[in-house]
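Q: Sequence in, structure out?
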Amino acid sequence: MHVGIDASAWDNERGFGRFIRSLVSALAARDTGFRYSLIFDRTPDLPVPDGVEIIVAGAGRSMSSASSGAGARAGADMWTMSRAAGALGCDLFFFPAHYSYYPILSRVPKLICIHDTIPERFPDLIFPTKRNHLLWQTKTRLAIWQARRVLTVSEASAKDISRILRVPRDRIDVTTEGPFDCFRPIDDPARISATRSRHGIAGDDRVLVYIGGFNRHKNVLRLIEAMPAILDACPLARLVIVGRTTGDRFWDNVEELTAGAARDARASGRISFTGEIGDGEMAELLAGAEALALPSLWEGFGLPAVEAMACGTPVLASDRGSLPEVVGDGGLMFDPESTDEIAQAAIRLLTEPDLRDSLREKALNRAAGFTWNKSAELTEAAFCRTLGK
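A: Exactly. Output:
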């Protein structure tokens, strides 16, 4: 079976990029009779696995750069990529993220991955203008209309897509995600200590880590606002926030977060922003942390949770969206709209050693169920169902 794949998001360093790179690598490594062609909007910066055909069709603004929200992808590029996809002669065309969708004027069966319905749930938190929202709605409707089937990454998202986007549940397939190989327990205290030192973390600091974006639905401000109460119970607590702080993401709220962190004089000295860091360093930071904190109002999957659990680090997670499904017994849940509940969950983990040790073991066991090979296997099954096989 020849599968064409939109690779517009290949160089995106956030979830969509990690998803397509990891999934395609896992698909290419399986000897199950599939052949893959990737269509790029520009020559990729990051490596592509062996045995996968590369087609560069675009020539202007890439989808990765357009995702900053500073402008829109060029219509001419979309038309060029659409024509290239239509002329590919593949048995099936796959969009790993529908945010990079473009219409394809051919009868080739299409499988489109819709990761979540966050834009539909929280349009006021996601879109800076009504025009942005309208364009998104139009693209989503067209993508669903063209797709023979829809793929998503959790049962929670499948339910949302069926209920909110009105896609029949029997047209939706569910795959999964997994951690990179570097996310695993690290039995080298010197490595962990060096990483902590680089980020100004003292040896006796009890670290909570946030990893992710700074869009408003990520709810990081409430996590920051919970720090004074956490410090009352555990004065050595430190919140380390990992993610791009340049402010060039699509309508993020970095300035609001830095202002919130500075609001309480005592807490401000216990909150730090690392900016973006590499995966290896991130794994070392997680391995030396007490917990990962994810206060998001909604997630379609929540890959940082799996990465943390694979390091043996428990997760303090919102009880919304896919996070209960992903984290399971590998962490503690809280109402993300309650600053008090966020604080109390953190305090329990920081002050109850037996609980923390139990959660570490459960987190490792939970993470073992999430792999990219499993994702590839489930995605191949979706390819076959899309073709009626």
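Confidence is low (pLDDT under 50) at residues 64-71.
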